C-alpha cells in the first residue's frame, strides 16, 4: 500500500482547526506574559488532544502537573475543568505527589537527564536548553512564533503515541 502526502489544503485545515483554541486564547486582552502563558497552555491542550493515552488512567481526571512558580501556571490554570477525550483536566502543583498525566517543566527546571519513564506521562519542556532533558515535547519560541519539537522515542518510553497530524505540525520530529 502506498501512502501519499495529503494535499496542502487539507494540512492547512488541520492546522487551522488544531490551533484555533490557541488563537482564541491569545486574542484575549491582557499583559504580554499572560498572553504567552495562554498561548502555550493552548498548545499543550492541543498536543494532548493528539496524543494516544494508555487506557489505565481513563477513569480519573487527566492531571497536568506544573510548579505554581512556572510562568505558564496562570495559563494552565485556565484549562482546569475543561474536557479532553472524555476526561476532565485537573491542573495541580507538581510538588503535591499526585500522579501526573502531563508534566510541564520550564527549561531551567527540567532535569539534567531523562527521568525514569512513567507509563502514560507526557513530559513537556517549555524552552530548549542545551545539555538538559527536552521531554517528549519541547515548546520553542522562534520570534515571533511558537513552535514545538517532538521526540517520539521519549513518548514511546512512556507508552504514548502522537497522531500523524500532530507530527506534521511539529518543527522537528526525532
Automatic annotation (TrEMBL):
It comes from Pseudoduganella armeniaca. Pfam families: DUF4154. InterPro entries: YfiR/HmsC-like. Residues 1-27 form the signal peptide. This is DUF4154 domain-containing protein. Keywords: Signal.
